[in-house]
Amino acid sequence: MNNIIIAIDGPAGAGKSTISKLISKKMGINYIDTGAMYRAITLKCICSNIDVKDEKSVIEICKNSDVDFRDNSIYLDGINVDGKIRTNEVSSNVSYVAKIKEVREILVKKQREIGLKSSVILDGRDVGTHIFPDTKNKFYLNASAEMRGKRRYKELIERGEHVSLNEVIKDVICRDEIDSNREFAPLVKADDAVEIDSTNMSIDEVVECIISKVKS
Ligand code: DC
């Protein structure tokens, strides 16, 4: 049987990673959080005091980094950075890193290599449009900006961060803007993607909806 590739794209806070993790467990397939790779590079820039708008330096950092997944966890230069990449500081800087063409080329190459090894679900912004444009299984997960901001806010508060709801909603909208308007592989729904608006749906409903539509 051919490997299945499921692409889940959509804006920040649409629930992509929660949904993708559950589907990966239910279907017994691997999960690749492509955004985590951009976050890992952003984390390294912050820790190295590199301005994320200094493209040359960010590209150097990316070329000299080892970003990989093991057991669905993200490793940066051999160290598990699952927790460290989710801070508000990383979130508000990551879009600047993700819009750099050379960074995208390096990480997309890696995403394709990992994705071709076995059946897999990947979430991100360009999985169905750019990384695996030939897959039959493309989904575009969306929700209102207010709902997406509320979800991100809840996550950050649970992690002990001090943020305001308004600040998080603003940040989500700002990221949408940068991700949708960048030159290389912008956030856009693939013509053949199934769009799901999760604003008023439970997590389980979204999971079941996607699994029922997956073609092998
Ligand atoms: O899904 P996330 O919030 O963890 O993604 C972090 C950032 O990375 C987001 O602002 C957009 C970018 N990204 C991207 O450009 N392409 C991807 N395939 C995944 C994420």
UniProtKB/TrEMBL annotation:
Record-given protein name: Cytidylate kinase
Organism listed in the record: Peptostreptococcus canis
HAMAP family: Cytidyl_kinase_type1
Enzyme class: transferase
Domain Cytidylate kinase: 6-215
Enzymatic reactions: CMP + ATP = CDP + ADP; dCMP + ATP = dCDP + ADP
Gene3D superfamilies in alphabetical order: P-loop containing nucleotide triphosphate hydrolases (3.40.50.300)
Compartment(s) where it occurs, according to its Swiss-Prot or TrEMBL record: Cytoplasm
Binding positions (ATP): G10, P11, A12, G13, A14, G15, K16, S17, T18
Superkingdom assignment: Bacteria
InterPro entries, A to Z: Cytidylate_kin, Cytidylate_kinase_dom, P-loop_NTPase
Alphabetic keyword roster: ATP-binding, Cytoplasm, Kinase, Nucleotide-binding, Transferase
UniProt-listed Enzyme Commission number(s): 2.7.4.25
Family that this chain belongs to: Belongs to the cytidylate kinase family. Type 1 subfamily.
GO molecular function, one term: kinase activity
